[in-house]
Amino acid sequence: MLLGEMTWPAFDDATRDPAPGAGVVIVPVGAVEPHGPHLPLAADTMISDYFAGRLARDLSGALVAPTIGYGVATPPQRLGGEFPGVLNLSGEVFTRLVTEVLTGLACHGLRRLVVVNSAIDNISFLCEAARIVTAAVPGARVMIVNWWDVVGEDFRDTLAAETGVARDVDHHAGMVESSLVMHIAPRTTRPAPEGPAGCPPRRFTYHLFPLPADAATSDGVVYTAVGSSPAIGERVAEQVARRLADAVRQEMR
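Above: the chain sequence. Below: its structure as tokens.
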């Protein structure tokens, strides 16, 4: 299942496997960046690794490629400011890296490529890589799926109603993401703060560089993680894993 742990003969055999999922390779993609004081820097990468593993178990014969654990820079307004620990790639380097990894896999006969991503600012660069690969390699298909793409609107509405945490304040390092990491990597988390320390930051949908002082935070909490719990995280994980497998089966037949 884990491509990086295979010998080359085992990998060669896997590419010829007649199982339904054979020929599908899952590439987890994440990022290293602050998620408030309560979640690990590699939260996005951990989430992608988790769902890639779940997906491979659901698709008999599918392989999981080594993780691309670095992403492109997230605008500081979504991080709540500038904090230590950010390790990112330029968009150019990231696109080239993903393009070459996907091309290499496709050239080995793995032409059904599923990218499981958990960092929103990676998306446009992943799409550019997919366009390059599918234009260059005949028969290659690339599916880019973020975990929140398949969680379901009704499910999110239900969680918001149950917890009292409105969806417009439940984004980066918010209640749902915090709960998910608490479930999949509990030893890496800390108690979740209820909201930003001090005055809540000003929020806006456009981008400003440098970040205005009133849009910055002292701890990286832009939204609220109040109400987060491992139990909610387990519910989210089960919902996403089931719907992710269904989506991949539909698109990668």
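The longest strand covers residues 24-29.
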